[in-house]
Each structure stands twice: as structure tokens, then as C-alpha cells.
Fold these 2 entries.
Entry 1:
Amino acid sequence: MRAFEFLDNVSNINTNTMVLDKGLGYNTVEDSLKLTGNYFNLLKFGWGTSILYEKELIKDKNELYQSYDIKTYTGGTLFELANKNNKIEEFFEELDNLGFNAVEISDGSTNIDETTRYSCIEMAKDAGFYTLSEVGKKNPQKDHEYSIEDRINLINRDMEHNADMVIVEGRESGKNIGIYDEKGNVKEDELQAIAENVKQQKLMWEAPNKSQQIDLILTFGNDVNLGNVNFNEIISLETLRRGLRGDTLGKFD
């Protein structure tokens, strides 16, 4: 039984929270999950960090995360590297051998034609992976070339091709990218346009900063899907979702 549980008026929240692992040791993860393991369900080994791990450590960490029903996957950078080197089949095979049960299909740093993109989504699904895709570019200048209509169309097309979850790019900084301006504030017009034209159940907003998390929770409710959450801020986000912090207190009674 949780401490002060009689003061928590919010029942279990059916949502998706994706947390970023940028190189945590096994013991650190093991200790943290005792407190946080029930409050997120997707874990991304950031960027290309997995290449720097010994295989057995990755297997052990995947097993540990998944013992809490947390799906694990590598950052989309590794997928893009595999595609660039014509190693997609080898990439999927290695994911399976290492115990990953999810995969991200993205083109944030490279260009992938639509046929290849949708083919890879279907390949991942056929291989049994929980499949996420990501819309947006890592380079702000290139990301700004997308009109809001472009972004909406790309999101919906990925959903039509059976991606389990589509991520809106926000990077780790949450600034000058996607729906965020140079200071990290939400661009309300773009947010509303996407909200009105995309199914929220399958949409994940990368929101690394507290102010962004608050805005999205207050706009869509405490079950909004949020990603790129810092490992040290899992509990902080959960208190926002449950109205246990001043910013959302009394909003979800």
C-alpha cells in the first residue's frame, strides 16, 4: 500500500510515458524501478548509445525493464544508421537477439523515402515488435520546413500504416523544434491543429520540460502520451498527472 494513498483521488491512469535512458548502470536502474517502475511503460536507450554496451548488459537491462512490463527500444538513430548501410534485416535480428521488444522507425537525421518508411513499419510489425514511428527533423532549420499540414499528413499516414504509436519530435532540449518555439513554449496554434486532426490515443508528444508537460496535461488531460522524460523526473511527471503538484492540483478530482 502506498503512503498517503487515501489522499490520491486519481485511479490508475491508462497512458503511455516514454523515458530516456542515456547510459544508466544496471544497479541504478534496479534501485530506481522499485520506486518508478509502475509509472512508465516505454524505455528508449537514447540515440546510438546501445552500440557502446556489452551485449550481456543490454540483455540484462532489457529483462529488468520488461519485468515491470516496460517495453524497450533503441533510439531511432540506430535505425537510420542501419537503413543508411542497408542493414535493416540485420538490425531487426540484433534487436531480437538482445531482447528488445519495440522499435522506432524515424528519419530525423537522414532522408528516407515513403516506400521504405512504410515497408519498415510493416516489417517491424510482422517481426512482432511494438512499433513506434517519429515525425520531425533533428535539425531545427529542416524541421521548420514542414508546414503544419505536412506534419499532420505524415502523422496520419504512419497511423494508416499501422504504427502503434507516432511520436512528435521534440528532442531532448524541447526547444525550437516541432510544436515548441525557441524558448520551449508550446505553439498553441500548431498544437490545436494537430489535436483536431489526429487521434490522440496513438500520438506521443516528446515533452522533456516541466512547463511543456503541464501545458499538454492541462490541454488533453492526465492520460496524454508524453515522451523523452528524464529518468530523474518520472515521479515528478506522475505527480503532475495525479494532481499532486500545485500546477495541476484540483484538476482531476
Note: The beta strands are 17-21, 42-45, 71-74, 102-105, 130-135, 165-168, 203-206, 226-230.
Entry 2:
Amino acid sequence: MKKVGVLFDLDGVLIDSEGLYTKFWEDIEKIYPTGVADFALIIKGNALFKILDTYFPKDIHQDIINRVHQFEHNITYPIYDGVIEFLKSLKEQGIPTAIVTSSDDVKMNALYNAYPHFRQYFNAVITGSDVTESKPHPQGYLIAAERIGCNPKDCFVFEDSLQGLDAGMAAGATVIGLTTNNPVEKLKNKAHALIDSFVGFNIEKMLAVTR
């Protein structure tokens, strides 16, 4: 029997923080205008290094990094309803899991401090410091699959952003989209299945998703 793995994006999938990040990047854009329409939405799913290198001159990178860290130090990270129950069921069934996020270690440590038992549900955590390519490149998901000992094609990916969904598909995984931050119409044909939340979702429903 093939070994199934489950790979999760973080923001907008496990924790309800995307709205807070949208507001943060809208404020940054006011301080350092990029001239890019819908900037805060376009960058969703991108690693910080890619955002900085693509949209901002190098002489202001450190200031933005400092602002990000200050913001993430003070932010609260509400976990979506149904998430812990689903993670517990995966752990009980011995199904390996990983987080694949563009977040850095500073943010992850703040999250672990807020929820000391959260880390125990994951066999691996891939952050922005583990990759050289940002989503929609599949690198993060390919690394995660390897670290939990699974073939990417035998993994399920849970994502909410368009770039993240593209990354999961490019990795060859079965992709399940969360409609937490984008309307269903925008996510159609971007994933193998769509769900509103993890409330009432279970392993059986996950395994029933086909390509």
C-alpha cells in the first residue's frame, strides 16, 4: 500500500491571518509605493525574499524586514475551526504531515510560543529559509514530501492562494483548495477539490478526492 502524506500551507489554511497580512502590506505600500495595482493581493503566497527582490529597492529591505518581524511579534494567530481535530486524526492514523510556508523562523517561533502543542502534529516544517524558489514553484512541496518519506504524487496538498495551488499541482500532488480567502469562482480548475473549512472534514473525505 502506498504511503500517503499530507502537506499544508499555513496562512489561510491552518491559521486565519491572511486579512491581517493584507492590511500590513497595504500599509507598507503606502510607505513605500510600488505602483502595482492590488499589490497586497498579488504577493500572497510569495516568500518575503521574493517580495523584497521583486518590488522594493535593496536600501529599504532591512526596514521592511524589521517591520515584518515587529508585526509578527505582536500578531495573534487564530487557528481555524476543525484544524486541530483533523490534525489529531492524521496523527492517530500515522499519516505523516508537513507545513510548507513562506513564513520565516521568527514567525514560526512566535506561533509555537502561542500554541506550544501545535508543532507536535507535523513531521516536518518547511519555511522560507528552506527554499530558494518561492511558490508557485513546487520546490517547497517537493522538499516536504521527501522529508516525510513520501512520493509527491501520493501526497495531498491543502492551499488557499492561487500561487500555492499552482505549486501543489506542479509538485504532482492531489490538491485541495480552501475557499477562506478567494471565491469559489476564482479557484475553479485550480485544484482537484474545494472545501470551505476543516469543520466536518475527515480522512475518508480526503482520500475520496481524485485527480
Note: Residues 23 and 40 are 8 Å apart (CA to CA).
